[in-house]
Write a structure and sequence with these properties.
It is a single chain. The chain has six helices and eight strands. By secondary structure, it is an alpha+beta fold. The protein folds into two domains: 2-60, no CATH class; 73-194, Type VI secretion system, lipoprotein SciN (Immunoglobulin-like, Sandwich). A hairpin with a 4-residue loop joins strand 7 and strand 8. The N and C termini lie far apart (82 Å).
Length: 195
C-alpha cells in the first residue's frame, strides 16, 4: 500500500509523506531490535553474574549443601561379636552417638570412652536433639544380631564408645553407608569395614 501511495499519478518522484512513513517504520523497527538486543545482553550479563555468585556460595558451603541434598542418608550397619573374655569377663557397655553439632563432632573424635560415659548425661542435656545415643550392654560370649541404625538428616558423624575397665581410648568414628564389624576383645575393641 505504501508503494502505491508513494508514487503520485503521472510522476516518477516518490510522495514525501510516504517516504516519511517508511522511514519512521524502519526507525521504529531498528529501535525495537536494539532495545530487545540490549535487554537480552543485560539478561545474560545478570545471569552470568548471578551464577558466579552462586558458584562461590556453593564452593564455600559444600558440606552444608551435601547435607541438604542428601534425602536419605546411608544407615550405620554393625555386626558385633563379644569374645568370652571381653572386658575382663565383665559386661561391656557400648554407645553409638549420632552427632549433628559440627563443633561437638570435632571434639568427640578425640574423646575417650571413659570421658564419654562420665559426661554422657550432661552432653545429652546440652546438645538435646543434636545428639542421638543408642546404648547396649553385652556380656562376654553373648550372640548379637546385626544392628542397623537409620541416620537422620544433618548428622555430622557417628562415634562408638565402649566402656572397658582397661586403660585406653576405647572409642572410634564409625564410617557411614558401609557394613562394619566390631569385635569386643578382652582389653579393647577392633573395628573392620566389610565389603
Amino acid at each position: 500500500m505504501c508503494d502505491r501511495v508513494a508514487k503520485s499519478v503521472g510522476s516518477s518522484q516518490p510522495n514525501p509523506r510516504a517516504v516519511g512513513l517508511r522511514t519512521a517504520h524502519a526507525l521504529h523497527r531498528s529501535l525495537l531490535c536494539r532495545s530487545l538486543l540490549c535487554a537480552l545482553i543485560g539478561s545474560l550479563l545478570f545471569a552470568s553474574l548471578a551464577c558466579a555468585g552462586l558458584r562461590k556460595k556453593i564452593a564455600g558451603d559444600a558440606s552444608k549443601l551435601a547435607h541438604f541434598i542428601t534425602l536419605v542418608p546411608e544407615p550405620v550397619n554393625l555386626t558385633v561379636s563379644v569374645t568370652d573374655k571381653a572386658n575382663d569377663n565383665s559386661p561391656v557397655a557400648v554407645d553409638v552417638a549420632l552427632i549433628k553439632d559440627k563443633n561437638f563432632w570435632k571434639s568427640a573424635q578425640s574423646m575417650a570412652a571413659k570421658d564419654w560415659f562420665a559426661q554422657k548425661d550432661d552432653l545429652q542435656r546440652r546438645y538435646q536433639s543434636k545428639l542421638i545415643v543408642h546404648s547396649w550392654e553385652w556380656v562376654p560370649g553373648q550372640p548379637i544380631p546385626r544392628i542397623s541404625m537409620k541416620l537422620p538428616r544433618g548428622v555430622e558423624g557417628a562415634m562408638i564408645f565402649a566402656n572397658y575397665q582397661s586403660p585406653g581410648s576405647h572409642s572410634a568414628p564409625l564410617p557411614q553407608g558401609v557394613k562394619v564389624s566390631v569385635a569386643l576383645q578382652p582389653d579393647d575393641f577392633t573395628m573392620k569395614v566389610n565389603q
